[in-house]
Amino acid sequence: MRVLVVEDERALREQLVKTLQRAGYAVDATDSGEEGVFMGSEYPVDVAVLDLGLPDLDGLEVLSRWRSNGHSFPVLVLTARGRWTEKVEGLETGADDYLTKPFHIEEVLARLRALVRRASGFASTTLSNGPIELDISSQEVRVGERDVDLTAYEYRLLEYLMMHPGEVISKTTLSEHLYDEETDRDSNVVEVLVGRLRRKLDPDRSIAPIETLRGRGYRMRAPPADA
Description:
Elements: E1 2-6, H1 10-22, E2 26-30, H2 33-42, E3 47-51, H3 59-68, E4 75-79, H4 84-93, E5 97-100, H5 105-119, E6 126-129, E7 132-135, E8 140-143, E9 146-148, H6 152-163, E10 168-169, H7 171-178, H8 189-201, E11 210-213, E12 217-220
Parallel strand pairs: 1-2, 1-3, 3-4, 4-5
Antiparallel strand pairs: 6-7, 7-8, 8-9, 10-12, 11-12
């Protein structure tokens, strides 16, 4: 998952970036509202963290421009403003959740996970697809009774595919949601990651969870309708 952080307090921005990266997110960050508008419009953002008190452009204006341009990714607003009227204004402008400073960084992570789940149509922290289970909170993966040890990028890939079951997702799209703008991307990396993930999830090739559609991309088989 790829998260955009728009926060002008340098120490807080750096803390958020480091914490989110450790939690498995690809992170883009800026201290500018104007640049935030651009990044939210041009980057494949899955969820955003937005400060309201930006120096060059008010955070509510950033949010308003995202929404007026048709960008529906969930937004967690961070602010030092504590009045309930300002919270209402933020929510009515298009924010999905609201945190008042100071806050615990763990709460930011929990709220972002909840926003991503809801945006993808999942109520539980556990994603299931046949025998495969992925716990978003603990980032643990099991196939049946077997624990599966994944690297950070393998986990990101599996999480994204399981968030979009039955959808054909191109290598380009996967790469954009796995890596931030600062990361050099090799066109063959996604193919290698998919191969490794298949071997770890399905060593005896009995469930074939990830399909390859030549020239189009990959698809996580949709779970049965009664699953």
